[in-house]
Amino acid sequence: MRFLRRFLERLANFAGRRSADQRLREEMEEHLALQTEENLRAGMPPEEARRRAVLKFGAVEAVRESYHSEQSLPFVESLLQDLRYAIRQMVNSPGFAAIAILTVALGIGATTAIYSVVDATLLHPLPYPQPEQLVSIQDDLPGVAARDVGLSVPEWRDLQSSGIFQNVAIEGSGSVNLTGSSQPARIVFKPVTPNYFAILGVKPELGRVFDPRDQTPGFNLEVVITDGLWKREFGADPAILGKSLRLDNDAYTVVGVMPPGFRDEGRTSDERNTELWAGTGFAGDPAPPPLRKTRLTLEAIGRLQPGLTVEAAQSRLNALVASLQKQFPDDYPPQSQWTVRLVPLTENVVGDVRQPLVLLLGAVGLVLLIGCVNVANLQLARASARGREMAVRQALGAARMRLVRQLLTESLLLSVLGGIAGIAILFCVKGALLRMVPDSLPRLNEISISWSVLLFALGVSVLAGVIFGMAPALQAGLVDPGNMLRQEGRGSRGSRTQARTRSVLVVSEFALSLVLMIAAGLLLRSFWDLFQVRLGFDPENVMAVRMWLPVPNDPSTDIYGTAAKEAPFIREILRRARSLPGVNEIALGSLSSVPLNHTRNMGPLILEGHDLRGSDPPMVEASSVTPEYFHLMGMPLLRGRLFSDTDSETAPKVAVINEAMALTWWPNTDPLGKHFKVNPAAPAWITVAGVVPNARTESLENANVPQVYLCAYQRQDKELAIFLRGRLDPAQLPEQVRRQVQSVNPELPVFEAKMLPEVVSGALAQRRFTMETVLLFALTALLLAGLGIYGTISYVVSESTREIGVRIALGAQRKSILSMVLGKGLKLAVAGAIAGFAGALIVSHLMAGLLYGVSPSDPLTFVGLTLVLTAVALAASYIPARRAMRVDPITALRCE
Amino acid sequence: MNEKSDVRQGTLALMVLKTLDVLGPLHGYGIARRIEQISGDMLAVNQGTLYPVLLKLEHEGSVSSEWGASEKNRKARFYRLTPAGHRQLQSETREWEQTAAIIARFFDVKAEDLP
Description:
Helix content of chain A: 40-55%
Largest interface: A-B, 30 and 24 residues
Distance between the termini of chain A: 63 Å
Number of strands of chain A: 23
Shape of chain A: elongated
Largest sheet of chain A: 8 strands, mixed
Number of domains of chain B: 1
Strand content of chain B: 5-15%
Low-confidence stretches of chain A: none
Oligomer: heterodimer
Low-confidence stretches of chain B: 1-6
Number of helices of chain B: 4
């Protein structure tokens, strides 16, 4: 209590300390007057009386100082003093201050920019309350190498009533046709179980969400929409609640509007752009009957009971799975090894981008560190110039700690000013930076400069100040004043330790930038390799336009309900689109036939003659295409035949497979003529008619994905894409296709027209972003390192002008002076290269997951970039070396 | 600051409190005189060191001060013991007496007294 009171008094005094000074003076005066009177009474002469009184009082300054330190906050006071001094120093050398602040500003601006992305994606990926309770529920059949096969409705009910979760929801994702507004619009929608919003825990802006206890088996005909859709399609109509919408020809009622910032969780960017949610039990039409065996290929999320960790929940879940397997042995064949995994939802959302983002943060941190080292170097150069000042102050009795503190204050002032400037720059270029971030980066939160980001920037500034202030400050603390002052007299500046510190700084700067450059080099090579990869299909001049056929809730009203009903429609679309201007070739396929679209379209694969008892069927990716697809995509035939128009809805079912598929399932035999099914319930077998080479239509990284192509006339699909090749006009064509499609059926939406070359480069967007950013940082680092070595060598030259003068006067060749100075630069560069080489090896192995087609210790990259860096070092030393060569011995010696 | 002066600082504060307790409100000079009379050389020089101590005591709430008129009608700052100061004096006096007694016993002990 007493301490607190004293502190508060001090604080108050600190604010108004003039009056306190006044008080002490008055009291002293009073004291001296009384003592003088006393002395006079004792018979002293007046002057002597006063003198004795003063003597007896003691050293006035000492009293005042201790009075003051009692009175106020000495730490803050000396801090203010240091700060005033630091500002004066800064104003005195504006050039140095500007360079230092700018370097720090760039470093901190870049670091904060990357951090703001990391903050929005990695640190706070889920904008929902208690995000740690949210899990994604995934089930696998490791026995048949099938991952993420999806839950069935009875399994969902088991989980829901298991007591492990507050709620478990099943969520689909897809398109829906919204008709009734000006144009039929395709909306990204999610059929979800009615407890979906209860799991996310977000309240609607208007109306309500679905009732979690709703037991309707099929769609409950209620929808919740986003704020965006509400404003765009309904003009923010305040009376929207209760209004009816026509979705895929069924009428739904709007019951709620979500708040503006709300975004759906989801693995793909398509899912995250969901604009409409419909409640369903997944147990009635149009869903299949809810059998335990019927896995819905949908996703499931759950909210754990409060206080339950993911690990604890997982072990309880394992017990549940074991008991279900015992209870339903027919549904869970032991060889399939059915398992259910809980994955934190955070992981599900950000899994893929963690590594690149951590790499970027590391890279930008290195740039900042290199910037700090540069500023430290500048500070050191100045410190040696200020060595005399420090020595004099120390000789006059300044404590070492006090000097260290003062120099640190100066550094901190620079770094905090740099930080503020950095944030200011960041605010100015924020828009441009955000455009650089690819859409494929998952972010449910908007990337913004929030308080936590600002706090981070401040922390980094202070840290940077301490880092680059430490070396010079400690150096100053170590100065031996006597020695220093004597040396000053002789005219040689800078101590040996200082020179060594500077060398260490430059070497580490070099090492750090080599690490960055090698990381960037490896990324660049991976990117280049991917860019150059043989696609196996020809995307040039091809456009894909998507369309969606409605799925009404009553299957009997579906006019495209079977392959036989759909085939005439497909033929009509192809016939009409063929006549469009510029179009040479045309084909149609299911969504999964669009290259690099990232939709999961796995189906069970049942091979004729394979015994399936005791195991589940393996999964395979199947798409359906019209006969023209292979020629249009530039995929040649290897064996057998491609589809033809005779493979109609009435003809026997045939398939074309790729080489990977042939090698996986018919490794030592001829696959042609073999039979299989992709739907266990279908009566007819499908015959393999032809084999095509592998194409990288699933991912650019991997060509060996087994693929099955079925004939579009023989299989019904709702998500379709029209492919057009020719001299296309990308601006006009989508509208022309829309008109043709809508002249067949005016209620069909046509959307997402994309040129395939853009799709291919879009698939590289995230890699490109990472690569370009790291490259930018690496070049900055190279520049800074070059400046660092230039500064150091220049300093060495100017310091040893006298020595060089003497050497020249004694007959040294100018060339040998040049090589002496260059040698110094080279020595630093080589030391840096060795350290950097080792560091880069570690870093490159850590980032191996981001590399493609290039070894993490690729010798070409390592050696090539080391040479580049050494060349830069030599170039940077060459300028001061030439200056050294031209030293005029007479001037040099006379000057000193 | 070494240990000796720490003790002095503490004792000086205690002397101030005791002086105010015995003599009632006093100005700085009066306190200094009194301490000088009793303790001899302790405040013969450096009387000024008294003032930081007074300020500290005031911050701690043990004394309060106000301007008043001295014997010869001069303006002077008078210090007065507060109730808190009184309590502090009592507890510190007790502590001092205990410490002094223990130290005294230690000094009294001779080698032959030890078992």
